[in-house]
Structures
1.
Amino acid sequence: MPLVSAKEILDDANKKNYAVGAFNINDMEFLKAIFSAAESEKAPIIIAASEGAIKYAGAEMLYAMTKTMADKSKIPVALHLDHGSNLNSVLIAIKAGFTSVMIDASHYLFEENLKITKQVVNICKPLGISVEAELGRLKGIEDNVSVADRDAVLINPAEAKDFVESSGIDFLAPAIGTSHGAFKFKGEAKLDFERLKKVKELTHIPLVLHGASSVPERASKKFEEFGGDLKGAKGVPFDVLKEAIKYGINKVNTDTDLRIAFLAKVRESFATDKSQIDPRKIFGPAMEYVTDVIKERMKILGCSGKA
Ligand code: G3H
Ligand code: 13P
Ligand code: ZN
């Protein structure tokens, strides 16, 4: 079916209290792996492409591939710009056919973030394109950090209410203690659930967890078994993820887990099939492994069977 807006997918998740995976792509291999998982789990999906992905593959290419896959499928699929840093990136995504955008002006002060976000909403709303924005900064928070330092980094729930009402965004990414990449926590994985609960109570809109990868053991073990070094990487454990969903997270952004899984399998193939010269024999099994990791994740998110 035609691509839908992420709002359409997330409004249902919000109403029924489950989460949908937003999975990052840069190429055909990850895209096909995500679709395989979605078809097999009967789960809606949000395909996310960052500015880096657009630089790597081109917005038109990412759109054409995603649309081709979506048209053949009965699963609801949205194509979303991840961390658009300025209006120009948003316009590039819209022109290519993306159905959803994130404007990430969270590094600016509140008023400037709001001003830029409003501009994006004004452009996107009439086109039926959904808009995500972010408040607070994605930075791991350690236990011994002071209340003032915590407040400086994490979302302020009262500001969130004001921001959502004034901007008209469709969903919000609150900083509650996660960070991007494979190294999220030194000690115990802890998120600020009290803050999350307040943001949900005050805004009622779908909420997004960035930096949500779990660094699942089976993929990280394989990565290291075949010569990789993840240097003690640590993600958001499945039970913490489930709790976050219980308190209002409806979109779970995942890139790092897919990267680790893909390259773990590539490492295995390189180590066990040293004379292989056909890339398809290396990438094929890696795609299947990514699909397995995503299927496991969809069950945790609660989106399996929701398509
Ligand atoms: O949030 C960041 C995503 O993982 C995309 O990463 O900017 O390296 O494409 P990237
Ligand atoms: P991870 O690095 O935890 O996969 O987060 C991805 C993300 O937030 C994309 O926006
Ligand atoms: Zn992110």
2.
Amino acid sequence: MSREAGPVVARTRAELAAARAGMSGTVGVVMTMGALHEGHARLLRTAREQADHVVMTLFVNPLQFGPNEDFDRYPRTFDRDLEIAAAEGVDVVFTPTPAEMYPNGEPAVRVNPGPVGELLEGASRPGFFHGVLTVVCKLLHLTRADIAYFGEKDYQQLTLIRTMVRDLDLGVEICGVPTVREPGGLALSSRNRYLSPAERETALALSRALRAGAVAAENGEDALAAARKELEQTAVLDVDYVVLTDPELGPPPEHGPARLLIAARVGTTRLIDNAPVEIH
Ligand code: PAF
């Protein structure tokens, strides 16, 4: 365990447990895979405002990457991440190795995300949500957090984590934090750094489509049609899905709050975005 001008850096479960034992009052956790950006900073700030202590986990979880995905090239920027954690007043950064996290190798028992985990991201990335929920469940146990903060940018992930906590009685509060966007509308994501300047321009179509959908929300079909029209105007975008759901990812309502979700590939980078829509 080391204190490097800021947070305590815990690399093992024992170091985390020792740091956690010294905390009284509420503990907020922000789980990350590193490559921090302003979206993570917003999560950390929210945790700092609401909880007495803030633990940040930094772990690139191999379980949630498919064989042809970007686990090896996922950006790893530890020193910069630690600076951001320090600036946001994080108390402890837990950054285990895969062997520390999974001492018996890949876990034989994993959290099953259920039917919602097979849709959308789950359909494109088989096993993804089993990997996410398994690591989130383990990190909730290891940190013994009272409140956990997740970005709305990964809306399906947030929804499934809420369901897991409810269905498995995990006894932790889940707080969703709104997406942070660049001035042009692009949702912040660690994977944005894969985009070339031209691809960044192309990627703006996602947030434009969400805005178009929200404006056209006289009914669900109009909202979807407006979003699709906007995306079709950007030929180099390879759209995976554009869907309208209720806020729990069920069938869209006739009236009231709904969610518009988009996934598309720009070059080799897969991007997702979503926004609330009020159906009139
Ligand atoms: O959203 C992420 O960065 C990851 O899915 C999470 C929640 C840290 C689990 O590895």
3.
Amino acid sequence: MVATPLQTSQSEEIFATAQKLMPGGVSSPVRAFKSVGGQPLVIDRVNGAYIWDVDGNQYIDYVGTWGPAICGHAHPDVINGLKEVIDKGTSFGAPCVLENVLAEMVIDAVPSIEMVRFVNSGTEACMSVLRLMRAFTQRDKVIKFQGCYHGHGDMFLVQAGSGVATLGLPDSPGVPKNVTSNTLTAPYNDLEAVKALFAENPDQIAGVILEPVVGNSGFIPPDAGFLEGLRLLTQENGALLAFDEVMTGFRISYGGAQEKFGVTPDLTTLGKVIGGGLPVGAYGGRKDIMSMVAPAGPMYQAGTLSGNPLAMTAGIKTLELLQKPGAYEQLDKMTKKLVEGLVSIAKENGHAAYGNSISAMFGLFFTNDAVHDYEGAKKSDLQKFARYHRGMLEQGIYLAPSQFEAGFTSLAHTDEDIDQTLEAARKVMANL
Ligand code: KE4
């Protein structure tokens, strides 16, 4: 449990040094707690549904290292799997049978993927898939949606979500105008806006890329007909459809959001879960498109550590755990109990609240209106969210330090963890 107020002297000391060594003291901006205030915690270890900071405080964790820990942190199957292979070396830089194993699992699971390429991050996967869409169609423009985040590639840093939204970064400095001039944006869930972009840019749009369930504006699911409408619009206009399932892949269901919603894109990006916590990204899709990727075809993309045997092993073990019957039903039931509980506790305490979840992904906004797009997310009470985040932290509950992030549960979370979280919310919401 956590002492209130938090005793975090060790974290403060280490983080003060970190800020002298690394920009903002972190290796990724959202970890700096900028939008929720207060000091980030320096984490000492993780296991199952829990994390411990360097001061010995234990928390129930709903960040799950931003998605990979869907089976719980440091699952023994993953750790033991790594122990079995690590003596063979950490990287080969050459074909390895483990790549075949994970590739077959991904191809068997994800409806759109007939062939796959492994990379080292979701950013790399999204950058590569954009280059591939342009190579295949010989067109330059791409449509993305406000509030969706596809990694930090230059061409995507236009009205992005996640840390860009959290930090209120406009279009990030350092990104040349001629790079983002080919990136068109539309509000999420707005098919008419997409139709208009196709009409204004005939035969120029290579493709549409989106999070099929948005995690980077908080949690925003697709409205009925939205994904189907995009599928039709792209086909009618000779453009490709890419689902960025870096966050939703193997989380919304074993076959991702595309399996859940029954809409098959031409290309898909993956990351997070398929690396089981080690650095892995991937992109894949129709064989005729993927055959353009070097060395099979002319579109270049490469990576020193891609297909790394340790990362492949962690991914294989994680997907094996997710294949267990009932895994996704368990995740969906537990997460619904959490979100419905949080919303009713907020309302009992007089707060406007809107929550939603699918499988092991959820969001809570302090607003009365349902959130269908980034504008809606931004209208929620961000200051109240910051106070909620801090209050929950002091109650031993570790939530994503931004309204523009989704929450994640795992197979390791128990009913008692959910009850304890709701108990904490009762104390926090009463004094928010
Ligand atoms: P990475 O390069 O961070 O592995 O993946 C980029 C990415 C691409 N697409 C989607 C849908 C994503 O959610 C991400 C990364 N997600 C963020 C959290 N929302 C990672 C956390 C961070 O940036 O520190």
